[in-house]
Amino acid sequence: MGSIASAALAITMIAAMLLLIFGFRLAMRPDDRLRGLLMIACGIIFIGNVLIWTL
Fold it and tell me: Which residues cross the membrane (predicted)?
């Protein structure tokens, strides 16, 4: 795998972790629960995509 592809996967994993962390923080608030759950779903999808590309 080339260096650009490795960097793209690393950036995607960083983005996924940030989405999960801040998604959980937003999901704890009653007024932003839906937005937080959507962020968590997006983070899980990012992680799944990275797993597919690395296998």
Answer: 6-24, 36-54
Residue type at 54?
Answer: T
| Start-to-end Cα distance in the chain | 12
The residue type found at 8 is A
Helix (H, G, I), strand (E, B), or coil: what is residue 1?
coil
Compute the CA torsion angle 23, 26, 30, 34 (nearest 10 deg). Answer: -40
The encoded tokens of residue 36 equal 């937080």
Q: Among 52, 49, 43, which Cα is nearest to 18's? A: 43
**pLDDT, tens digit (0-9, with 9 covering 90-100), for 29-50:** 999 999 999 999 999 999 999 9
